Amino acid sequence: MRAFLLSVLSLMLMASPVGAQRPVEMADQFRADGKIYVVIGVLAIIWVGLIAGLFFLERRIGKLEQGLRNGVPKTSNTSSKTPQ
């Protein structure tokens, strides 16, 4: 699966100069108005948020897997009260 994703990514990167030969009027207008930096900033924030979310999700899953391997199930209820 990893090799497949790597090959798809490499094909996408190789194909990108082909589409860059045509002028894009919207991008030129954004550059002229200075709004391209806003677009790049928003995209960067979205990507950083997605990567951070995946990183923290991976850490949580790793802790759960480690708990299952050690035989200590993790529960979401951490209160010390026992039902009577």
Residue-averaged pLDDT: 81
Alpha-carbon distance between the two ends: 50 Å
Shape: elongated
Instruction: Give the uncertain stretches in residue-range form.
Output: none
- Major β-sheet, in short? none
Order of helices and strands: HHH
Q: Determine the number of helices (DSSP H or I, runs of at least 4 residues).
A: 3
The portion of residues assigned to helices is over 70%
By secondary-structure content and strand pairing, the structural class works out as: mainly alpha
Task: Specify Rg, calculated over alpha carbons.
Answer: 23 Å
The counted number of beta strands is 0
Strand content: under 5%
Explained architecture:
By secondary structure, the protein is an all-alpha fold. It has a domain at 43-70. Helix content is 74%, strand content 0%. The chain contains three helices and no strands. The longest helix has 35 residues, at 36-70. The chain is elongated.
